[in-house]
């Protein structure tokens, strides 16, 4: 047996590196649960792993470049350690498929966004077909086919440690076709899980001690619109929220990422009715210019968005609103950008994720004339960030001295003596306390802030 094949005598250890959004995190979690159930061990670090899987993002070119560089690095290690198994999962794998295998010889596995539940089978196959001659193992497994019902496969949770919060995937795909976005191509058409399945998953999480769930979907507040009817004025999404509200032990409900057009009267009413629905919405704006919104194929105007913000704030006092904005979309003039800047200053978002437009293959916007120079995108990005940070600093100062409820999620990542939690408005709060408060809802008086992170003392 070659020395690097010694690990075949025991169950291999896996490591999953995840890029991108919370849906990718949740999908990676599901793969990890299935691999553990199959007897694979979770490696303590990438360096200790016999199998390294990269769950990829395709939303921006930079995310793809990072994943490709990471894989180049792993393939370098594979030259010294031929038994190492490496693979891509997720959005870039879906959009580039077999092209990745051609680009990166000795890649073992490429699986798309509807195939997470097949990863364990494919790893079993890769291992089973290995003999002492590692060089015979070069043909990768590539599977990026569509699969009916794949939205129902992201449903298990590790719950190996005491856990205060969990993500729950409720739908996959998107039919909106915004002109800049590759997601409809990487995640497919909208498909939703049955409401009863989601409720029983949430009930099991609550029984295991989880206090807060975040519902996930590419266009989460359009959940079920293709599958189920509106009942008594409530969309399937609000029907789900009202059903989740009744679960004993569950204290907080969040959802991401919604589309502004999905906020109809019934969802606004849910913010008035449901105690567990947290005071935070993510409301992607993308641009403050109607001309650019039309070119982006966003189905709202600046005026409609502005009214929606007012309606949401009226329905839910203390609501925090965060947003996404793209600067440098093709054809964006300085006047368009200034309109965005003015709207951001007017609406006073709690935070805004600002992205420089990145052309994605196969999307209509990539072929539009008037592509904006990178230097201009950069200037607009920096300028808008300064506006957003300035507002956030003012908002943060207003929280000083106030007592707020936080759900403690665990030890702070930067300092083990501290614990980290979130307010209902999704602000991160760090506390120092002798007792382990993980999973508890505690009142905290805010004493300090560094704009997006707050510090405070637990009230007893
Ligand atoms: S709604 Fe969101 S995920 Fe769907 S196409 Fe538009 S930006 Fe992409």
List keywords for this structure.
Rossmann fold, pyruvate-formate lyase- activating enzyme, binds iron/sulfur cluster, alpha/beta, globular, OB fold (Dihydrolipoamide Acetyltransferase, E2P), single chain, disordered N terminus, 19 strands, six-stranded parallel β-sheet
Record the SSE blueprint.
Elements: E1 13-18, H1 22-37, E2 41-42, E3 51-56, H2 61-80, E4 85-89, H3 90-96, H4 98-103, E5 109-111, H5 119-128, E6 141-143, E7 165-169, E8 171-172, H6 183-187, E9 191-192, H7 195-207, E10 212-216, H8 236-245, E11 252-256, H9 265-273, E12 280-282, H10 290-296, H11 302-315, E13 320-327, H12 334-347, E14 351-356, H13 374-399, E15 403-411, E16 418-423, E17 428-432, E18 441-449, E19 453-458
Parallel strand pairs: 1-2, 1-3, 3-4, 4-5, 5-6, 7-10, 10-11, 12-13, 13-14, 17-19
Antiparallel strand pairs: 8-9, 15-16, 15-18, 16-17, 18-19
Helix pairs in contact: 7-8, 12-13
Iron/sulfur cluster (SF4) binds next to helix 6.
Briefly, what is this?
The chain has helices spanning 22-37, 61-80, 90-96, 98-103, 119-128, 183-187, 195-207, 236-245, 265-273, 290-296, 302-315, 334-347, 374-399, and strands at 13-18, 41-42, 51-56, 85-89, 109-111, 141-143, 165-169, 171-172, 191-192, 212-216, 252-256, 280-282, 320-327, 351-356, 403-411, 418-423, 428-432, 441-449, 453-458. By secondary structure, the protein is α/β, with parallel strands linked by helices. Strand 13 (320-327), helix 12 (334-347) and strand 14 (351-356) form a beta-alpha-beta unit.
């Amino acid at each position: 047996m070659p020395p690097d094949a010694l690990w075949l005598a025991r169950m291999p250890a896996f490591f999953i590196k995840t890029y991108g959004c919370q849906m990718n995190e949740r999908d990676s979690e599901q793969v990890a649960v299935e691999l553990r159930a199959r007897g694979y061990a979770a490696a303590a670090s990438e360096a200790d792993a016999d199998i390294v899987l990269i769950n990829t993002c395709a939303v921006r070119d930079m995310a793809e470049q990072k994943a490709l560089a990471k894989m180049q690095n792993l393939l370098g290690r594979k030259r010294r350690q031929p038994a190492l198994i490496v693979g891509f999962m997720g959005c870039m794998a879906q959009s580039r498929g077999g092209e990745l295998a051609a680009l990166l010889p000795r890649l073992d596995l490429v699986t798309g966004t509807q195939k997470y539940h097949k990863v364990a089978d494919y790893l079993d196959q890769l291992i089973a077909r290995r003999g002492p001659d590692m060089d015979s193992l070069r043909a990768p497994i590539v599977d990026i086919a569509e699969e009916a019902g794949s939205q129902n496969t992201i449903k298990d949770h590790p719950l190996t440690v005491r856990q205060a919060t969990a993500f729950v995937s409720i739908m996959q795909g998107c039919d909106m076709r915004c002109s800049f976005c590759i997601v409809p191509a990487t995640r497919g058409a909208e498909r939703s899980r049955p409401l009863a399945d989601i409720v029983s998953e949430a009930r099991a999480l609550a029984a295991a001690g989880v206090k807060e769930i975040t519902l996930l979907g590419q266009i989460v507040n359009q959940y079920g619109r293709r599958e189920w009817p509106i009942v008594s004025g409530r969309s399937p999404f609000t029907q789900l929220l009202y059903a989740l509200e009744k679960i004993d032990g569950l204290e907080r409900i969040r959802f991401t990422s919604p589309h502004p057009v999905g906020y109809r009267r019934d969802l606004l009413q849910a913010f008035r009715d449901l105690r567990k629905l947290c005071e935070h919405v993510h409301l992607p704006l993308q641009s403050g210019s109607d001309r650019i919104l039309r070119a982006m194929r966003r189905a709202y105007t600046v005026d409609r968005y502005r009214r929606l913000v007012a309606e949401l704030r009226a329905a839910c006092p203390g609501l925090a609103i965060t947003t996404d904005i793209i600067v440098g979309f093709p054809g964006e003039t300085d006047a368009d950008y200034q309109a965005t800047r003015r709207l951001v200053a007017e609406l006073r978002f709690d935070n805004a994720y600002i992205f420089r437009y990145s052309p994605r293959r196969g999307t209509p916007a990539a072929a539009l004339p008037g592509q904006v120079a990178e230097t201009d995108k950069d200037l607009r990005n920096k300028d808008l960030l300064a506006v957003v940070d300035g507002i956030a600093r003012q908002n943060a100062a207003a929280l000083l001295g106030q007592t707020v409820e936080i759900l403690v999620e665990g030890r702070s990542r930067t300092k083990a003596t501290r614990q980290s939690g979130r307010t209902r408005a999704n602000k991160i709060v760090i506390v120092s306390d002798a007792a382990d408060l993980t999973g508890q809802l505690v009142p905290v008086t805010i004493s300090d802030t560094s704009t997006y992170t707050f510090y405070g003392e637990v009230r007893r």
